[in-house]
Amino acid sequence: MTAQTVTEKIISQRAGIAVRAGEIAVVPVDGAMASDTTAPLAMRAFREMGGTRLKRPDQAFLVIDHAAPAPNERIANLHRLMRDFAAEMGCQLYDVGAGICHQLMVENGHVQPSHIFLGADSHTPTYGAVGALGIGMGSTDLAAAWLTGKTWLKVPETTKLVLNGRLQPHVSAKDIILFLVGQLGIAGATYQAVEFTGTAVTHLSLASRMTLANMVAEMGGKTAVVDTTGLDWPTPFTPIQADPDARYHAVREFDLSHLTPQIAVPHSPDNIVPVTAVAGQKIQLAFIGSCTNSRLEDWHAAAAVLAGQRIAPGVRLLIAPASKAVFDAALADGTVAALSAAGATFMTAGCGPCVGTHQGVPGDEEVVISTANRNFRGRMGNPNAHIYLTSPAIVAAAALTGEITNPAELEN
Amino acid sequence: MKTIQGIAHVYGDNVDTDRIIPGKYTKTLDVSHLAAHVLEDLDPDFRQQVQPGDVLVAGDNFGCGSSREQAPLALKAAGVSVVVAAYFARIFFRNAINIGLPVVEIGPHAITPGARLAVDLLAGQVVDESNGRIYPATRLPDVMVAILQAGGLVNYLRERGDYEQQ
Ligand code: SF4
């Protein structure tokens, strides 16, 4: 048996034959999720394929999160189609307000370590946080998985990122992944799996691991795997480790002990600079949300900056929880009250303004500071707005002062 | 599948799916609605100028970003017959073949707007008939060739009911 990467091992296990990077494998899938952006097309493709029942209804999930609640009758009717389909097929539907698809798959344990899990959404690599292969596909591929219980895939090459060192205060998983996207570039991991390991990783919480794996999509990666050493996961599992002599496309090591807070400037997530380089830039809209950064620890980081103070006049601070469970936990521990008193507006759990379908669209020439993962022109619904991406603490600081703020000032 | 001939519309590197079809227009099952907004933020004139059968040509990493299948659907509905790029983002590439929009990866090229192209999908080459240059294409995995020959993944599975073992 030749040495294998984590990705090669997981695919070999599920395919039932040893595979290596570059080979094509047909594998059974452990889950197949679609959102309200992708499910309607998937449902249509499924019927056009002649599908009448799902191969594994217990492994199919529909989530209404991208435009929830519906902003107009057209979308409301697509949501209806999803509810009808779920009822007819006997699969689980997460309706308006439950949360963001990726958060729900992890939070509810639908995805488990060493699963192969398909999502009709490009941020499906997020499931690498639990040591699963989350692979983003389109609607028709997803329909095919519903029909057959399988998918075909090309076993990807792996880029291994070894991250060591102890992080400075106010430096979070978001700063790590922004830094790495800047280093590798928007196409730096195209067609590849990205494996994260090292002492800076094995100390991270589950939420932070999700932040890390999430933005592998912004390197063009096919999937991510975070070393499960130190993972806080409720059920026992058998960890899968790479063989020491596994073959990698590239191995890159980074010492993160001196990493400072990072920010992506318009209009690409790989335009990364230290926050200090753009300090003083005025902002009008601050957004805490998205599958990258709107979990309890992210809200705690924001509340630590904002508690007892008020956001600057002329600034809107919008917060969309990653899930209702996040909101309820933050309600119970006082975080919601603290953020609300500081001037935050809370939105429905879900994607919120991240994708520009509804709610929270910025005006022309307005500057947005956001905890999300993409700042392509037009991403939030207006091609004439300017989006900066950074960590929850830095977004909170900007909301407080009305401008992108040097993190050193957070000390005071 | 025979050779596709058409006039080139040429764009650069890293054209993301938000530029192909903005997220705000994706919530629909009506492809004419998609075609009406295709490439709107990148080139507002494109949808007036594109003629059925035209070829979209791009640089590196075409279709990066969101996994929305509405992106290749919008191009197909607008009349684009084939997309030729230096290379494609993974999900876009797969989506396009699944919905029956041919895509051809040829590496760095010097195709200019208005060039008349002949794209031979099975032989895997693009000929620039304006200057005779020939660009060989990256070979597709067999499963993709079968899906493309069936006219997309829907037809492939309607005919077979399951994936053929490799
Ligand atoms: S939060 Fe944003 S990036 Fe995440 S799934 Fe929703 S739209 Fe996509």
Compact summary:
The complex is a heterodimer of chains A (about 400) and B (about 170). Chain A has about 400 residues and is of the alpha/beta class.
Your description of this structure?
The complex is a heterodimer of chains A (412) and B (166). Chain A has helices spanning 6-15, 39-48, 73-89, 101-107, 139-148, 173-184, 199-202, 206-214, 296-306, 324-332, 335-341, 392-401, and strands spanning 24-28, 31-35, 60-63, 92-94, 116-120, 133-136, 150-154, 158-164, 193-197, 223-226, 250-255, 262-264, 272-274, 285-288, 316-319, 345-346, 367-370, 386-389. With 412 residues, chain A is of the alpha/beta class. A 5-stranded parallel beta sheet of chain A has the order 4-3-2-5-6, sandwiched between helices. The termini of chain A are far apart. Chain B has a 7-stranded mixed beta sheet with strand order 4-3-2-1-5-6-7. The longest helix of chain B is centred in the middle third of the chain and has 10 residues, at 90-99. Chain B has one domain: Aconitase, domain 4, CATH 3.20.19.10. Chain B has 166 residues and is α/β, with parallel strands linked by helices. At the A-B interface, strand 1, helix 2, helix 3, helix 5 and strand 7 of A face helix 5 and helix 7 of B.
